[in-house]
Amino acid sequence: MESFENKTYTGNSKPLVKGEYEKCRFDGCQLSNYDLSGFYFTDCIFENCDLSMAKLRGAAFREVSFKNCKLLGLHFQHCHTFLLSFMFSNCMLSYSSFYRLKLKNTSFNDCKLVDVDFSESDMSGSIFGNCDLSGAIFDQSVLDGCDFRSAVHFSIDPGKNSITKARFSNNNLSGLLDTFNILID
Hints:
The chain is an all-beta fold and 185 residues long.
């Protein structure tokens, strides 16, 4: 596995070359605001990296893991969708968008997903373990079989989203009732 450690990529530094990266590890790399359009990442690991506001038009992420990464404001819907698959652990994904993507069985563990847009996405079978979903948008989303048991601060309208066999805990059921504007004591 090729390794890229503690690299900062800006307009003034030696650029990360556009191409195909397979089984590579990126550790501590600064790629915020970087143009990753047309890059292909397959079976790669990003750890302790900052990709906030990176441009992703046509970028491919296949079996890519993000651990302890800052991924603020990313528009994942601009990615190449063929075989698109991620795993996120302890990441900050706030203000990002997964609009209209099919990301079945995606794992989000210990992530901050504040104001993330999941509108019209198919997240079937995904896990939102210990995630903060404050202000996250679920509109016409497919959430069948998703695990929200340890997620907090979500608001999901069962009338506007498919939640068949999704799992919730007794402690967070109020997130399914927000649309009814009722008081729960």
